[in-house]
């Protein structure tokens, strides 16, 4: 069996940065917590917990001392609450997420109705939205939802960093019919599009695709969808233990990719187990 491993599999720049900051902060502080899990990898969160990083889910639950803000960022309200409590902040918000937050603020300030392409409930989306202070915002998860956007003189379009370029373009097409002026900031992160394009390439060449990453990770789930469309024999797994020998019947080439929050050691374990299955 041949294994095709995507070059872009695993940690992206923002996650690498957040993880490094979290481990460094754990080493230099006695008590520290993160507001929500640092990244969508339960396995990595567990490792951080062993180093004393406690996950809390609301600012009021932060005991005292220091708090790590994860790569998805936080809402402007949470940031205000944190600052009001005089906590030490280790801000690991990915600079690309930060820039989407800044564009939301700018568009809102300049009187645009803000259209955000993304998953409504995702913390990153919630964070970005909160910076559009006017409250004139529309979140669309898919192009058909954009049809419901009311007419506006001016619309500003941004996207959750993990969205696909094609979705953004389709929403832009619909928005064009809804306003006189459309301003677009492409806030999709390069890491995502590169990873998605590579996943497509690998899926085309493989008889079976394994997508490794947290089941709660939006970008991993999207990768799995993309691969499934091309190669229905695609499995989204979190760990090597979830591999089933029967998946590999008649398989010559296995494609492997992984989400932005998947640690390298998990990828290596999967490769190792696939090799064992094929022997
Ligand atoms: Fe940042 Fe892009 Fe990763 S937005 S967290 S570098 S997927």
How would you characterize this protein structure?
The protein is an alpha/beta fold and about 280 residues long. The chain folds into 3 domains: about 1-10 and about 190-279, Cobalt-precorrin-4 Transmethylase, domain 1; about 15-95, Rossmann fold (3-Layer(aba) Sandwich); about 95-190, 3-Layer(aba) Sandwich (Cobalt-precorrin-4 Transmethylase, domain 1), CATH 3.40.1010.20. It has 10 helices and 12 strands. The chain has helices at about 15-30, 40-50, 75-85, 95-110, 125-130, 145, 165-175, 190-205, 220-230, 265-279; strands spanning about 1-5, 30-35, 55, 65-70, 90, 115, 135-140, 150-160, 180-185, 210, 235, 255-260. The strands form 3 sheets. A 4-stranded parallel β-sheet has the order 1-12-10-11, with helices on both faces. Strands 3-2-4-5 form a 4-stranded parallel β-sheet. The chain has a 4-stranded parallel β-sheet with strand order 7-6-8-9, sandwiched between helices. β2, α2 and β3 (about 55) form a beta-alpha-beta unit. α4 (about 95-110) runs parallel beside α5 (about 125-130) and α8 runs parallel beside α9. The structure holds FE3-S4 cluster.
Task: Give the key terms.
279 residues, Cobalt-precorrin-4 Transmethylase, domain 1, binds FE3-S4 cluster, iron, 4-hydroxy-3-methylbut-2-enyl diphosphate reductase
Show the helix and strand layout.
Layout: E1 2-5, H1 13-28, E2 32-35, H2 42-50, E3 53-56, E4 66-69, H3 76-84, E5 88-91, H4 95-109, E6 113-117, H5 123-130, E7 137-140, H6 143-146, E8 152-159, H7 165-176, E9 179-184, H8 190-205, E10 208-212, H9 218-230, E11 234-237, E12 253-258, H10 264-278
Parallel strand pairs: 1-12, 2-3, 2-4, 4-5, 6-7, 6-8, 8-9, 10-11, 10-12
Helix pairs in contact: 4-5, 8-9
This protein binds FE3-S4 cluster (F3S).
Residues 12-15, 71, 94, 96-97, 161, 189, 191-192, 260 line the site of FE3-S4 cluster (F3S).
């Amino acid at each position: 069996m041949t294994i095709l491993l995507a070059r872009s599999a695993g940690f992206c720049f923002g996650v690498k940065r957040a993880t490094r900051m979290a481990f460094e902060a754990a080493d230099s502080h006695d008590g520290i917590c993160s507001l929500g899990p640092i990244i969508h990898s339960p396995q990595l969160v567990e490792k951080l917990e062993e180093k004393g990083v406690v996950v809390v889910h609301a600012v009021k639950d932060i005991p005292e001392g220091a708090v790590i803000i994860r790569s998805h960022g936080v809402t402007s309200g949470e940031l205000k609450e944190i600052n009001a409590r005089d906590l030490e902040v280790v801000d690991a918000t990915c600079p690309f997420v930060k820039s989407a937050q800044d564009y939301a603020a700018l568009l809102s300030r300049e009187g645009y109705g803000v259209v955000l392409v993304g998953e409504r409930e995702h913390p990153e989306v919630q964070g970005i939205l909160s910076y559009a202070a006017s409250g004139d915002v529309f979140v669309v998860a898919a192009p058909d939802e954009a049809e419901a956007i009311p007419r506006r003189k001016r619309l500003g379009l941004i996207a959750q960093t993990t969205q696909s370029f094609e979705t953004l373009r389709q929403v832009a097409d619909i928005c064009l019919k809804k306003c006189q002026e459309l301003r677009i900031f492409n806030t999709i992160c390069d890491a995502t599009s590169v990873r998605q394009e590579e996943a497509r390439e690998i899926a085309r060449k493989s008889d079976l695709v394994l997508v490794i990453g947290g089941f709660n990770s939006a970008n991993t789930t999207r990768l799995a969808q993309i691969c499934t469309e091309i190669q229905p024999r695609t499995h989204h797994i979190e760990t090597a233990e979830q591999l089933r020998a029967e998946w590999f019947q008649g398989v010559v080439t296995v494609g492997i990719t992984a989400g932005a929050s998947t640690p390298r050691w998990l990828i290596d374990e999967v490769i190792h187990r696939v090799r064992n299955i094929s022997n």
